[in-house]
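Re: [help] complex structure
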Amino acid sequence: NAGVTQTPKFRVLKTGQSMTLLCAQDMNHEYMYWYRQDPGMGLRLIHYSVGEGTTAKGEVPDGYNVSRLKKQNFLLGLESAAPSQTSVYFCASSYGPLNTEQYFGPGTRLTVT
Amino acid sequence: AQTVTQSQPEMSVQEAETVTLSCTYDTSESDYYLFWYKQPPSRQMILVIRQEAYKQQNATENRFSVNFQKAAKSFSLKISDSQLGDAAMYFCAYRSAQLGNEKLTFGTGTRLTIIP
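Output below.
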């Protein structure tokens, strides 16, 4: 049982480049989330999904797109990276909403120069 | 909108002693959930403890316990018999009980250092 995995672990992009971060979970969870963590701040929700084929905006969605074509995968895309998107990105998943625990991946450190 | 405030950016405690991390939150809702997450240097976020707002009894998990004061909107974490492995960033988080309002709102974190 790998839990929640994220690919890649580190990445450096130039401004304007695009990339996709992959999140995979093997716990058959319905809900998946993408967060970003910046220095001096807690995690902030970018987008989330309540099931296969669904996505919804979180607190800071601008500049990102997501897709959930398969239940176990949740992709986060940056179409035209900007230095403001330099951050650590965390994926999480849970059985459902409310008080169910969110299980986090190890994070992806992204630097945009 | 809900906000979560952790007023202690850093705390330190001697090994085997007890430490309390503070968290306050602001909400107009009556039903919600509160969490403490631990983030060690490995960056992995780990759930430490959770509290349902409708429960008056404070949650406890082994050496970790909370002091939940609903009227004061306070949710502090007490760590007893501190161990070197407790060194980490600790985040307090709030989640609405309303379906469709799925996000966790995090505080800015408290860095806990354990002194041997």
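The two ends of chain A are 36 Å apart (CA to CA).
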